[in-house]
């Protein structure tokens, strides 16, 4: 990409955002898939959040930030952020939460498919504060990476020795690197 022109940069940035958001959703999905519905409600310590609460918060954030992204404030008047941090009453709520999770991510992925390279320098607002589209997307990538990491940590705590690694398992880096090198021409 060293010799790429400026006109090639914006599409590459959008592609990078698409890749990052999909990667963090996949990481969160693979961690959550290791939990039974009742385990979504596990709170590891006082003032900590369960997986269900983190998911509720991300759903609220995704909907608020990316619905009418280019034309309305990213903090919608009907969002009730504090309620996102209330524990669901029972595991019976989890299947519905899973559906809302998918629908909320769909809002973001549709937006990313519609954004044009020229949109990156447009101004959007979040809580009445102006941001470029570029900075607003970067802000959300960091936010979702943070929460995906929390979900992975919760799954590791809950599953303990049964947790299936989502990357290179401990003690297997050298073997992974050898295997990777063997596949290179």
Give a structural overview.
This protein is mainly alpha-helical and 185 residues long. It has one domain (7-183): dinb family like domain (Four Helix Bundle (Hemerythrin (Met), subunit A), Up-down Bundle), CATH 1.20.120.450. The protein is built from 5 helices and 2 strands; from the N terminus they run αααββαα. The protein has helices spanning 6-32, 51-66, 94-114, 133-159, 173-183, and strands at 123-126, 129-132. The protein has a two-stranded antiparallel sheet with strand order 1-2. Helix 1 (6-32) runs parallel beside helix 4 (133-159). The longest helix has 27 residues, at 6-32.
Number of domains: 1
What structural class do you assign from the helix and strand content?
mainly alpha
CATH superfamily: dinb family like domain
- End-to-end distance, in Å? 21 Å
Q: Which percent bin holds the helix content?
A: 55-70%
Mean pLDDT figure: 94
Total number of helical segments? 5
CATH C-level category:
Mainly Alpha
Q: Strand fraction band? A: under 5%
Task: Please give the radius of gyration in angstroms.
Answer: 19 Å
- Largest sheet data: 2 strands, antiparallel
Q: Report the count of strand segments.
A: 2
Order of helices and strands: HHHEEHH
């Amino acid at each position: 990409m060293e010799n790429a022109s400026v006109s090639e940069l914006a599409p590459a940035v959008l592609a990078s955002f698409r890749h990052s958001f999909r990667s963090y959703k996949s990481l969160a999905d693979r961690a959550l898939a290791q939990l039974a519905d009742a385990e979504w409600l596990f709170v590891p310590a006082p003032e900590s959040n369960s997986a269900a609460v983190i998911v509720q918060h991300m759903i609220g954030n995704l909907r608020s930030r990316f619905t009418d992204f280019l034309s309305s404030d990213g903090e919608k008047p009907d969002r009730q952020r504090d309620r996102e941090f209330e524990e669901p009453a029972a595991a019976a709520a989890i299947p519905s939460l899973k559906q809302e999770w998918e629908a909320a991510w769909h809002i973001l992925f549709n937006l990313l498919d519609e954004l044009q390279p020229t949109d990156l320098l447009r101004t959007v607002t979040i809580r009445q504060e102006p941001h470029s589209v570029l900075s607003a997307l970067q802000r959300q990538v960091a936010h979702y990476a943070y929460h995906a990491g929390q979900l992975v940590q919760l799954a590791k705590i809950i599953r303990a020795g049964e947790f299936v690694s989502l990357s290179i398992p401990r003690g297997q880096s050298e073997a992974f690197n050898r295997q990777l090198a063997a596949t290179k021409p």
